[in-house]
Amino acid sequence: xxxxxxxxxxxxxxxxxxxxxxxxxxxxxxxxxxxxxxxxxxxxxxxxxxxxxxxxxxxxxxxxxxxxxxxxxxxxxxxxxxxxxxxxxxxxxxxxxxxxxxxxxxxxxxxxxxxxxxxxxxxxxxxxxxxxxxxxxxxxxxxxxxxxxxxxxxxxxxxxxxxxxxxxxxxxxxxxxxxxxxxxxxxxxxxxxxxxxxxxxxxxxxxxxxxxxxxxxxxxxxxxxxxxx
Length: 229
What we know:
The chain has one domain: Rossmann fold (3-Layer(aba) Sandwich), CATH 3.40.50. It has seven helices and five strands, in the order E-H-E-H-E-H-E-H-H-E-H-H. The protein has helices at 16-27, 45-56, 100-115, 137-150, 152-155, 171-180, 205-217; strands at residues 7-11, 31-38, 61-66, 119-121, 161-163. It has a five-stranded parallel β-sheet, with helices on both faces. Strand 2 (31-38), helix 2 (45-56) and strand 3 form a beta-alpha-beta unit. Its EC number is 6.3.4.20. Pathway: Purine metabolism; 7-cyano-7-deazaguanine biosynthesis. Zn(2+) binds at residues 191, 201, 204, 207.
Protein backbone atom coordinates (compact mmCIF):
# COMPACT_ATOMS: atom_id res chain seq x y z
CA UNK A 1 0.00 0.00 0.00
CA UNK A 2 1.41 3.41 -0.96
CA UNK A 3 2.30 6.05 1.63
CA UNK A 4 -0.12 8.48 -0.01
CA UNK A 5 -3.15 6.24 0.62
CA UNK A 6 -5.91 7.74 2.76
CA UNK A 7 -5.21 7.20 6.43
CA UNK A 8 -7.76 5.93 8.91
CA UNK A 9 -7.76 5.16 12.62
CA UNK A 10 -9.55 1.88 13.42
CA UNK A 11 -10.73 1.17 16.95
CA UNK A 12 -9.70 -2.42 17.61
CA UNK A 13 -10.82 -4.55 20.54
CA UNK A 14 -9.57 -7.81 19.06
CA UNK A 15 -13.17 -8.94 18.68
CA UNK A 16 -15.24 -10.12 15.77
CA UNK A 17 -16.83 -6.76 14.91
CA UNK A 18 -13.78 -4.52 15.04
CA UNK A 19 -11.72 -7.04 13.08
CA UNK A 20 -14.36 -7.10 10.35
CA UNK A 21 -14.31 -3.30 10.24
CA UNK A 22 -10.52 -3.32 9.91
CA UNK A 23 -10.77 -5.69 6.95
CA UNK A 24 -13.47 -3.52 5.37
CA UNK A 25 -11.44 -0.32 5.75
CA UNK A 26 -8.37 -1.98 4.32
CA UNK A 27 -10.35 -3.33 1.36
CA UNK A 28 -11.45 0.25 0.62
CA UNK A 29 -7.84 1.32 0.24
CA UNK A 30 -7.23 2.97 3.60
CA UNK A 31 -3.85 2.86 5.27
CA UNK A 32 -5.00 1.64 8.67
CA UNK A 33 -3.75 2.57 12.12
CA UNK A 34 -5.33 0.38 14.80
CA UNK A 35 -5.97 1.70 18.28
CA UNK A 36 -6.67 -0.42 21.35
CA UNK A 37 -7.14 0.49 24.99
CA UNK A 38 -5.80 -1.08 28.14
CA UNK A 39 -8.58 0.47 30.21
CA UNK A 40 -8.63 -1.85 33.21
CA UNK A 41 -10.82 -4.48 31.58
CA UNK A 42 -11.08 -7.87 33.24
CA UNK A 43 -10.86 -9.74 29.94
CA UNK A 44 -7.22 -9.02 29.18
CA UNK A 45 -7.19 -11.53 26.33
CA UNK A 46 -8.70 -8.90 24.06
CA UNK A 47 -5.44 -6.93 24.04
CA UNK A 48 -3.50 -9.98 22.88
CA UNK A 49 -6.17 -10.64 20.25
CA UNK A 50 -5.97 -7.05 18.99
CA UNK A 51 -2.20 -7.43 18.64
CA UNK A 52 -2.62 -10.71 16.72
CA UNK A 53 -5.20 -9.18 14.41
CA UNK A 54 -3.07 -6.15 13.67
CA UNK A 55 -0.03 -8.30 12.96
CA UNK A 56 -2.11 -10.32 10.52
CA UNK A 57 -2.56 -7.11 8.48
CA UNK A 58 1.08 -6.46 7.68
CA UNK A 59 0.66 -2.79 6.71
CA UNK A 60 -1.10 -1.78 9.94
CA UNK A 61 0.45 0.24 12.75
CA UNK A 62 -0.94 -0.72 16.15
CA UNK A 63 -1.07 1.47 19.25
CA UNK A 64 -2.28 0.65 22.76
CA UNK A 65 -3.30 3.55 25.02
CA UNK A 66 -3.49 2.92 28.77
CA UNK A 67 -6.45 4.33 30.68
CA UNK A 68 -7.90 3.51 34.10
CA UNK A 69 -11.65 3.33 33.65
CA UNK A 70 -11.62 0.74 36.41
CA UNK A 71 -10.90 3.53 38.88
CA UNK A 72 -14.41 4.90 38.38
CA UNK A 73 -16.03 1.46 38.33
CA UNK A 74 -19.65 1.04 37.36
CA UNK A 75 -19.26 -1.94 35.04
CA UNK A 76 -18.90 -5.70 35.33
CA UNK A 77 -16.10 -5.45 32.76
CA UNK A 78 -13.90 -3.33 35.03
CA UNK A 79 -15.07 -4.11 38.58
CA UNK A 80 -14.44 -7.61 39.92
CA UNK A 81 -17.12 -7.04 42.58
CA UNK A 82 -19.79 -7.05 39.84
CA UNK A 83 -20.53 -10.42 38.27
CA UNK A 84 -20.68 -10.73 34.50
CA UNK A 85 -24.28 -11.83 33.82
CA UNK A 86 -24.77 -15.17 32.10
CA UNK A 87 -28.51 -14.76 31.57
CA UNK A 88 -30.31 -12.30 29.31
CA UNK A 89 -31.11 -9.04 31.12
CA UNK A 90 -33.54 -6.21 30.51
CA UNK A 91 -32.41 -2.67 29.75
CA UNK A 92 -28.79 -1.59 29.64
CA UNK A 93 -26.76 -4.41 31.22
CA UNK A 94 -24.04 -4.12 33.85
CA UNK A 95 -21.46 -4.92 31.16
CA UNK A 96 -21.95 -1.37 29.84
CA UNK A 97 -18.80 0.64 30.60
CA UNK A 98 -19.79 4.26 31.36
CA UNK A 99 -18.91 6.57 28.44
CA UNK A 100 -16.41 4.05 27.03
CA UNK A 101 -16.96 4.71 23.34
CA UNK A 102 -17.07 8.45 23.94
CA UNK A 103 -13.65 8.28 25.59
CA UNK A 104 -12.25 5.91 22.97
CA UNK A 105 -13.45 8.01 20.04
CA UNK A 106 -12.09 11.18 21.63
CA UNK A 107 -8.60 9.67 21.82
CA UNK A 108 -8.94 8.23 18.31
CA UNK A 109 -9.88 11.72 17.17
CA UNK A 110 -6.68 13.14 18.67
CA UNK A 111 -4.51 10.50 17.01
CA UNK A 112 -6.30 11.02 13.70
CA UNK A 113 -5.38 14.72 13.83
CA UNK A 114 -1.74 13.87 14.52
CA UNK A 115 -1.68 11.39 11.63
CA UNK A 116 -3.54 13.66 9.25
CA UNK A 117 -6.28 11.03 9.00
CA UNK A 118 -9.76 12.20 8.13
CA UNK A 119 -11.50 8.91 8.88
CA UNK A 120 -12.17 6.92 12.05
CA UNK A 121 -13.77 3.47 11.97
CA UNK A 122 -15.61 1.85 14.88
CA UNK A 123 -17.32 -1.55 14.99
CA UNK A 124 -20.48 -0.62 16.87
CA UNK A 125 -23.66 -2.46 15.94
CA UNK A 126 -27.29 -1.52 16.58
CA UNK A 127 -28.87 -4.87 15.61
CA UNK A 128 -27.11 -7.70 17.46
CA UNK A 129 -25.84 -5.75 20.45
CA UNK A 130 -26.40 -5.48 24.19
CA UNK A 131 -28.44 -2.28 24.31
CA UNK A 132 -25.50 0.02 24.94
CA UNK A 133 -26.40 3.67 24.24
CA UNK A 134 -22.99 4.34 22.67
CA UNK A 135 -23.61 1.73 19.96
CA UNK A 136 -26.52 3.56 18.37
CA UNK A 137 -26.74 5.75 15.24
CA UNK A 138 -27.70 8.83 17.28
CA UNK A 139 -24.42 8.60 19.19
CA UNK A 140 -22.26 8.15 16.09
CA UNK A 141 -23.94 11.06 14.31
CA UNK A 142 -23.62 13.31 17.35
CA UNK A 143 -19.94 12.49 17.83
CA UNK A 144 -19.16 13.23 14.19
CA UNK A 145 -20.79 16.64 14.56
CA UNK A 146 -18.76 17.24 17.72
CA UNK A 147 -15.53 16.18 15.98
CA UNK A 148 -16.05 18.72 13.26
CA UNK A 149 -16.49 21.68 15.61
CA UNK A 150 -13.91 20.67 18.23
CA UNK A 151 -10.79 20.06 16.10
CA UNK A 152 -8.46 21.90 13.76
CA UNK A 153 -9.14 19.22 11.17
CA UNK A 154 -12.84 19.96 11.41
CA UNK A 155 -12.58 23.74 11.42
CA UNK A 156 -9.66 24.34 9.04
CA UNK A 157 -9.10 20.99 7.33
CA UNK A 158 -11.10 18.51 5.33
CA UNK A 159 -13.24 17.37 8.24
CA UNK A 160 -13.53 14.14 10.23
CA UNK A 161 -15.77 11.25 9.25
CA UNK A 162 -16.84 8.58 11.75
CA UNK A 163 -17.55 5.30 9.97
CA UNK A 164 -19.70 2.63 11.61
CA UNK A 165 -20.28 0.21 8.70
CA UNK A 166 -21.78 -2.53 10.89
CA UNK A 167 -24.53 -0.42 12.45
CA UNK A 168 -27.38 -2.04 10.51
CA UNK A 169 -25.99 -5.57 10.09
CA UNK A 170 -26.91 -8.70 12.04
CA UNK A 171 -24.07 -10.79 13.42
CA UNK A 172 -24.48 -13.39 10.66
CA UNK A 173 -24.18 -10.71 7.97
CA UNK A 174 -21.09 -9.30 9.69
CA UNK A 175 -19.47 -12.72 9.70
CA UNK A 176 -20.31 -13.31 6.05
CA UNK A 177 -18.86 -9.91 5.13
CA UNK A 178 -15.67 -10.71 7.04
CA UNK A 179 -15.25 -14.17 5.55
CA UNK A 180 -15.59 -12.68 2.07
CA UNK A 181 -12.62 -10.48 3.02
CA UNK A 182 -10.66 -13.52 4.31
CA UNK A 183 -10.87 -12.59 8.00
CA UNK A 184 -9.53 -15.33 10.26
CA UNK A 185 -11.99 -15.20 13.16
CA UNK A 186 -9.91 -17.73 15.10
CA UNK A 187 -7.61 -14.79 15.89
CA UNK A 188 -10.40 -12.87 17.62
CA UNK A 189 -11.79 -12.94 21.16
CA UNK A 190 -15.31 -11.72 22.03
CA UNK A 191 -15.95 -13.22 25.47
CA UNK A 192 -16.45 -10.90 28.46
CA UNK A 193 -14.65 -13.38 30.73
CA UNK A 194 -12.11 -15.01 28.44
CA UNK A 195 -9.04 -16.57 29.99
CA UNK A 196 -5.63 -15.04 29.32
CA UNK A 197 -5.21 -17.80 26.74
CA UNK A 198 -8.28 -16.52 24.91
CA UNK A 199 -10.63 -19.36 25.87
CA UNK A 200 -14.25 -18.20 25.97
CA UNK A 201 -16.79 -18.98 28.69
CA UNK A 202 -19.56 -19.76 26.19
CA UNK A 203 -22.19 -18.33 28.58
CA UNK A 204 -22.01 -14.53 28.59
CA UNK A 205 -24.08 -12.44 26.21
CA UNK A 206 -21.14 -11.69 23.94
CA UNK A 207 -20.47 -15.43 23.57
CA UNK A 208 -24.15 -16.11 22.85
CA UNK A 209 -24.34 -13.44 20.14
CA UNK A 210 -21.13 -14.69 18.54
CA UNK A 211 -22.24 -18.33 18.55
CA UNK A 212 -25.69 -17.46 17.19
CA UNK A 213 -24.04 -15.43 14.45
CA UNK A 214 -21.95 -18.32 13.20
CA UNK A 215 -24.95 -20.64 13.38
CA UNK A 216 -27.12 -18.20 11.38
CA UNK A 217 -24.32 -17.72 8.86
CA UNK A 218 -24.07 -21.49 8.45
CA UNK A 219 -20.37 -21.41 9.27
CA UNK A 220 -18.31 -23.34 11.85
CA UNK A 221 -17.54 -21.40 15.01
CA UNK A 222 -13.73 -21.19 15.46
CA UNK A 223 -14.03 -19.98 19.07
CA UNK A 224 -12.03 -21.91 21.67
CA UNK A 225 -14.24 -22.55 24.69
CA UNK A 226 -13.18 -23.49 28.20
CA UNK A 227 -13.78 -27.17 28.89
CA UNK A 228 -13.07 -27.41 32.63
CA UNK A 229 -16.10 -25.59 34.02
